[in-house]
Amino acid sequence: MLEGWQTRVTRARARLGWTQGPLAARAHAGGTSLAITAPCDQLLVATEVNEWALCAALLARDPAHWGGLAVALLAAALEEAADPAAVLPPVLDEDAAFARFATLAAREARPALAALLSVAGRRGLAHVLDETLLTLGTGARGRSFALDALPEVGELPWASLGDIPTALVTGSNGKTTTVRLLAAAARAHGWRAGFNCTDGVFVDGETLASGDYSGPAGTRLVLREPRTDAALLETARGGILRRGIAVSRANVAVVTNVSSDHFGEYGIHDLDGLADVKLSVAAVVAADGLLVLNADDALLVAKSAALAARFGRAPPLGWFALDADQPLLAAQRRAGGSTAGVRAGRLLLAAAGVEHDLGAVAAMPLSVAGAAAYNVANLAAAALAAVALGIAPATVAAVFARFGARPADNLGRLMRYDVGGVRVLVDYAHNPEGLRGLLGVAEHLRGAGRLGMLLGHAGNRQDADIEAVARVAAGFRPQLVVVKENEAHLRGRAPGEIPRILRATLLREGLPESALPVRLTELEAARCALEWARPGDVLALLVHSAAARTAVLELLQAAAGD
């Protein structure tokens, strides 16, 4: 089946003159994906080629079963078309299909686009491309052009175009915190920082967009904003898998960690596949840039050795870990490479053969006196990335000494309040590792008090993933778990379905029914927890939607008299 699919794609590409680039077939638990390379101005035609090749292979394999494919393809094309009268009907006969592809390719072709990108590539100039705009250069040094009004190569002031310092940040946990740390360091350096994350897009202190912009749409907004002097770009798994990496070149990329999350989507069913997705950022790191990796993550360590084989080259590596003298970091320094880690309670950065003391970890507010080990890792990763972008270590140290002291520094992440003697943590933890880290901080803070928490999940997770989060929560033996509906992220689940899974798992893990109230909104869940708590207790409020977080923070500020 796969061979028939691939050979048809190969014949179609040859007929269209697409000689560049490989095919990539990837088998996974839910089937097989076939990715094909095509010219940048032929991507819509490429999807037609891939769909035809699959359908034609199916028909050839079992005509009796697949005989209705041609009718189904035509019906789908008519349904999706803005103007059904303009649809060029899909066909499965090979000669007729190739003639159709030639017509579609001629409609989509943009010779001026290919010419501009060729010159940009020779000049080492980054570009950003989508369905309507081409941006040559980035930020304050870039210019954007409508695809239907592209200039000729000779009309552009190429010498005035350039790239701004750019960092990509991906991983399972810590992306938004690391991006915000980098943005704070960039501002302290004197740059107008632009960044995107799960909260929105922000440039020079202004909010350009609100919502989850941790993918290509957010990246494009940052890189096309003329005020942006430095770009710090959260690059989430979903955006990579759906739309790729929006920028063609970056100075730095960070992979914070890889842990179980989002399995079952886009052919990713295990940690190995998820690590491959995260490490896709290595492809766009400049030859003189830095790929920052977590040396405490065994999977990232193992896969780092294969980067050159995967991409044809490997960028320079910078390693971070909680222990500055971890063997991999020590070897990296002996080879003259960059590292960051903790020794004797101090965060140390090694770069260009020089070691810099960035300060006592316990004095960095983000570390919660050293108890938030995951934030210590985020600090180490951000230090490596910031210095690689050209920010002075002393500036980084000054930022780390104050970042996180105000709840607004890192909205939704380890925000800390005192409400009548109750210590309250507001956080976004959304997978087992993130929750384990947060509850570890809560345990550190609670002393003789009780532990209460909220627990919910987004609907686009497998039942096993939802149960795993509940098991982590149960392992800390909280005296209260308010099981909540994550009403803004049902994502195909029926209302009440996820709370039922969570509560059933908590009961199986031995928590008493009386400790497991259910609330149907995040705000009501927070109210329930606050009403239960008494001085000396610690509450871990997991709040996931931006609207609910705003309401919960208003509730906390009113209760605290702030």
Give an overview of the whole structure.
- This protein has 562 residues and is α/β, with parallel strands linked by helices.
- The chain has 4 domains: 107 residues, no CATH class; 50 residues, no CATH class; 245 residues, UDP-N-acetylmuramoyl-L-alanine:D-glutamate ligase, CATH 3.40.1190; 146 residues, Mur ligase, C-terminal domain (Protein-Tyrosine Phosphatase, Chain A).
- The chain has 20 helices and 22 strands.
- An 11-stranded mixed beta sheet has the order 9-8-7-10-6-11-12-13-14-15-16, with helices on both faces. Strands 17-18-22-19-20-21 form a 6-stranded mixed beta sheet, sandwiched between helices. It has a 3-stranded antiparallel beta sheet with strand order 3-4-5, with helices on one face.
- Helix 16 packs parallel to helix 17 and helix 17 packs across helix 18.
- The protein is globular, with a radius of gyration of 26 Å.
- The relative contact order is 0.07.
CATH architecture of the largest domain, by name, is 3-Layer(aba) Sandwich
What percentage of amino acids are in beta strands?
15-25%
When the domains are counted, the total is 4
* Sheet of most strands: 11 strands, mixed
> How many helices does DSSP assign?
20
Kindly report the name of the CATH homologous superfamily of the largest domain: Mur-like, catalytic domain
CATH topology assignment of the largest domain: UDP-N-acetylmuramoyl-L-alanine:D-glutamate ligase
Q: List segments where confidence is low: pLDDT < 50 over at least 5 consecutive residues.
A: none
Strand order of the largest sheet: 9-8-7-10-6-11-12-13-14-15-16
Radius of gyration: 26 Å
Distance between the termini: 65 Å
How many E strands? 22
Overall structural class, as computed from helix and strand content, comes to alpha/beta
Q: What's the CATH class label of the largest domain?
A: Alpha Beta
Provide mean pLDDT, rounded: 94
Q: Per the principal axes of the C-alpha atoms, what is the gross shape?
A: globular
Question: Helix proportion of residues, in percent?
Answer: 40-55%
